[in-house]
């Protein structure tokens, strides 16, 4: 059982907390925020033993084993390196960093300090997507030829008149925000490294991306088409097409049901899940208990290939 402290109280922190508390091998031990009042209220809400209002206090607590970083994207690298320097294991919300060289630096330090580091891409660890991944591996739908995945939200319409991290130079853009979900999903389901990428995007005032589409060709011949947007309310769906059938899922990063089509018949794929964040947390703790410094599922190379698509 490992003690986890959440660093940062962005909107996602509450959902992360629920996921940690549902994990079998982890305990939500504390929260850290610059606002002492917010940290106290969060700790009370989730019945936590303690809370911190400074990183230094958090890092000095020997009972903190793992830090789950939920701070703004532009702060991720500095926070990762500081936590690793103090011998803490780290799970960092996506995007972990914005540049490949920073990614390499962070994982190199994790290896040097013999501490675990993972980018938190929850969609590859949900029970449903783990099951679909296994079904593909077992050949249930035959050889896969095409993966389609898209995730969109009209965040630009909703937030363009207010201050938001979405529109900051460091860490903004729909590819970093929600585009990583279809990219991570396609990469995970393809079970192969990337061979070729064609990406097209639209930017707001040549600043941050508000709509993007990409075609990806993998070394094993599978093709993927991904789309993401802040200006269009597209259906948030994923489709996987094989020679013997296909799999279809709405809200693919958090759903518990999908449809399997084969032989002209429709079958339901169903799993149970308390939180879409629990799978990634349990996986990370399992890796830590085995002495790993990175995940074999979402390690340096997996994170690098996601950035490869974004930066293409």
UniProtKB/TrEMBL annotation:
- By its UniProt entry, which InterPro entries does this protein fall under? Gfo/Idh/MocA-like_OxRdtase_N, Gfo/Idh/MocA_domain, GFO_IDH_MocA-like_dom, NAD(P)-bd_dom_sf
UniProt key word GTP-binding:
no
Q: Where is the GFO/IDH/MocA-like oxidoreductase domain?
A: 130-247
Q: Which Pfam families match?
A: GFO_IDH_MocA (PF01408), GFO_IDH_MocA_C3 (PF22725)
Keywords linked to the UniProt accession: Oxidoreductase
- This entry's Enzyme Commission designation comes to 1.1.99.28
Q: Name one GO molecular function term.
A: glucose-fructose oxidoreductase activity
Q: Where is the Gfo/Idh/MocA-like oxidoreductase N-terminal domain?
A: 3-121
Main EC class of this protein?
A: oxidoreductase
Q: Which domain of life is it from?
A: Bacteria
Segment forming the signal sequence: none
Q: Which family does it belong to?
A: Belongs to the Gfo/Idh/MocA family.
What is the official name of this protein in its record?
A: Oxidoreductase, NAD-binding domain protein
């Amino acid at each position: 059982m490992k003690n986890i402290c959440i660093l940062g109280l962005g909107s996602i922190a509450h959902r992360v907390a629920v996921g940690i508390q549902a994990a079998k091998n982890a305990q939500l031990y504390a929260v850290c925020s610059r606002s002492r009042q917010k940290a106290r209220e969060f700790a009370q809400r989730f019945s936590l033993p303690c809370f911190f209002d400074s990183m230094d206090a958090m890092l000095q607590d020997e009972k903190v084993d793992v830090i789950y970083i939920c701070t703004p994207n532009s702060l991720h690298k500095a926070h990762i390196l500081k936590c690793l320097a103090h011998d803490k294991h780290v799970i960092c919300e996506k995007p972990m960093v914005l540049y490949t060289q920073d990614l390499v630096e962070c994982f190199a330090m994790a290896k040097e300090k013999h501490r675990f580091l993972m980018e938190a891409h929850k969609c590859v660890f949900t029970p449903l997507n783990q099951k679909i991944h296994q079904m593909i591996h077992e050949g249930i739908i035959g050889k896969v030829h095409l993966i389609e995945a898209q995730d969109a939200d009209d965040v630009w319409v909703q937030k363009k008149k207010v201050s938001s991290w979405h529109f900051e130079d460091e860490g903004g853009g729909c590819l970093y925000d929600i585009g990583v979900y279809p990219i991570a999903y396609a990469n995970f389901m393809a079970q192969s490294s990337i061979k070729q990428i064609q990406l097209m995007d639209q930017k707001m005032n040549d600043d941050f991306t508000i709509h993007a589409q990409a075609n990806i060709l993998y070394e094993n011949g599978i093709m993927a088409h991904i789309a993401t947007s802040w200006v269009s309310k597209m259906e948030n769906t994923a489709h996987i097409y094989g020679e013997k059938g296909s799999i279809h899922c709405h809200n693919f990063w958090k759903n518990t049901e999908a449809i399997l089509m084969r032989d002209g018949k429709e079958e339901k794929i169903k799993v149970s899940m308390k939180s879409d964040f629990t799978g990634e947390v349990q996986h990370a703790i399992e890796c830590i208990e085995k002495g790993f410094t990175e995940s074999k599922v979402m390690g340096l190379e997996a994170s690098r290939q996601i950035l490869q698509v974004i930066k293409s």
